[in-house]
Amino acid sequence: MATLVVPDHPSPVQDAESLRKACQGWGTDEKAIIQILGHRNAVQRNQIRKAYEELYQENLIKRLESELSGDFEKAVYRWLLDPAERDAVLAHVAVKDSMLDYQTIIEIACVRSSEELLAVKRAYHLRYKHSLDEDVASHTTGDFRKLLVALVSTFRYDGDEINVSLAESEAKLLHEVIKGKAFSHEEIIRILSTRSKSQLNATFNCYRDAHGTSITKSLLDDPADEFLAALRMAIRCITFPQKYFEKVLRNAVNKGRTDEDALTRVIVTRAEKDLNDIKELYHKRNNASLEHAINKHTSGDYKAFLLALLGDKEL
Amino acid sequence: MATLVVPDHPSPVQDAESLRKACQGWGTDEKAIIQILGHRNAVQRNQIRKAYEELYQENLIKRLESELSGDFEKAVYRWLLDPAERDAVLAHVAVKDSMLDYQTIIEIACVRSSEELLAVKRAYHLRYKHSLDEDVASHTTGDFRKLLVALVSTFRYDGDEINVSLAESEAKLLHEVIKGKAFSHEEIIRILSTRSKSQLNATFNCYRDAHGTSITKSLLDDPADEFLAALRMAIRCITFPQKYFEKVLRNAVNKGRTDEDALTRVIVTRAEKDLNDIKELYHKRNNASLEHAINKHTSGDYKAFLLALLGDKEL
């Protein structure tokens, strides 16, 4: 379930006019911006962008970029983009990062459905005149390249059909390879990157049934090994994305310095999808609400905007 | 240019009725079938299939399969399918082949545009409840797997933009790797499978300019090496598909036993695309027309059907 709360039938023209007003004159009226944009869904935001462009011959996103700043600006910018466009931007930033932010790439590749991932790749073509596959491939090497390129390139079958004997034989194969500590073995990458999510769930269940431990636990051999961390991340994104996102949020607020990029990414990309489920998991796991954590670890307009996306009822 | 010749505004209902008549009673009227289906484009064939289904509550393809036989049946069956559906069938047959027919897979992956290849993958999902990537991956091993999965999975950028300095640096990189005989080097596979076709053309031109020989010639180290043959094939499919198809046709008729599968595949998949250009290249290269070769090496209804697709004017 989503957390986003939107009013019935808001007028895109009125919204565009209010946003224009909020940007004009001395200072910017951030509150008005949050009140509008923090309570509009993707279709409505798109209509507002179009209405604004028509009314003022000006790009709303560019205008807001020049008016806002810091984490608040970043969050509003990401929020205003279409989901596929936003993922293309997130992936591009992740690829260009000098350290290569593999977490974001795995998240986009493994959480999105096949059709959603395809839309991201189309948006990436349009925006960067390159393919996502090619940028990931040319910014990585070795085992990481093999894994990431395979995860990004695949066009998985999205159906529910499961082949039980295949699940059993591939669970066995995975166990043998992992037992032999051949973590970058091409069979792990092949299975993880090409099988459908339903099939992979069946395979991981067989793994647990046969060996009494989950495959992610088996891949905990060396906690400092980043490739193993990437494998576990991909598996968690495929099998239980809400739980994965709960952990990202937990790490974003609980590790001394708040990780605003991760916080923004999860809240902005999930607010219209399953952020309510993630919030519930967060509450259960941390004995405190996500809102409480955000209140504690962020501030100002940025905080107000995140809380709006989290379902703050003030319309 | 295409070779297919179609009449103005044929009636799908009339066509369906004529096909029904051709299938009824004692014996089948193959001539009538060729006269109709050999002169209808993809849209028209689709309309005929629909009209036939509505009129007779019977699947036209299944009916024709039961009426026809041998190479003629195979050719009509492939011809009746939508292009993407047909490629999905061709790829599936190629994957399931005990020897794995890598030529067909490379052809589909490298000749089709990104959007066409995507349509093939969608058709494959729908038909086989599996992804093409996963079937290719699970039926191959080693270097062949790396190459084929990468070529099948990619979603290349389709634009014309070229980065000249990238072309130069990757031409140099390719030359170094090839000089060191590291043919299955991951950089060859990365470049070949992820860069746009325009970019690859630029890279291969740089290669030729800098080293006085084409990259395909450099990959001729051991003529018996199948992996090298696959690399050359992929490069030829990307850079000059018509020339590649001319060679496939030449081999199909000039090697003692006629290769009807290859003949059918090229003629059926190219008749509505560029078969005229392929025919011209064939004529130039072999001092004889493609029609002449087909007349010589095939017979009966199969021959008549291929000649119809090749532009036989008899409507």
Give your account of this protein's structure:
Helix content of chain A is 71%, strand content 0%. With 315 residues, the first copy, chain A, is an all-alpha fold. The first copy, chain A, has four domains: 12-68, Orthogonal Bundle (Annexin V, domain 1), CATH 1.10.220.10; 83-153, Orthogonal Bundle (Annexin V, domain 1); 164-239, Annexin V, domain 1 (Orthogonal Bundle), CATH 1.10.220.10; 241-309, Annexin V, domain 1 (Orthogonal Bundle). In chain A, α5 runs parallel beside α17 and α7 (102-111) packs parallel to α15 (226-239). Chain A starts with 11 loop residues before the first helix and ends in a 6-residue tail after the last helix.
Which helices and strands appear, and what pairs or packs with what?
Two copies of one chain form a homodimer.
Chain A: H1 12-23, H2 30-37, H3 42-56, H4 60-67, H5 70-80, H6 83-96, H7 102-111, H8 114-128, H9 132-138, H10 142-153, H11 164-179, H12 186-194, H13 197-211, H14 215-218, H15 226-239, H16 241-254, H17 260-270, H18 275-286, H19 290-297, H20 300-309
Helix pairs in contact in A: 1-2, 1-3, 2-20, 4-5, 5-17, 5-20, 6-7, 6-8, 7-10, 7-15, 9-10, 10-12, 11-13, 15-16, 16-17, 16-18
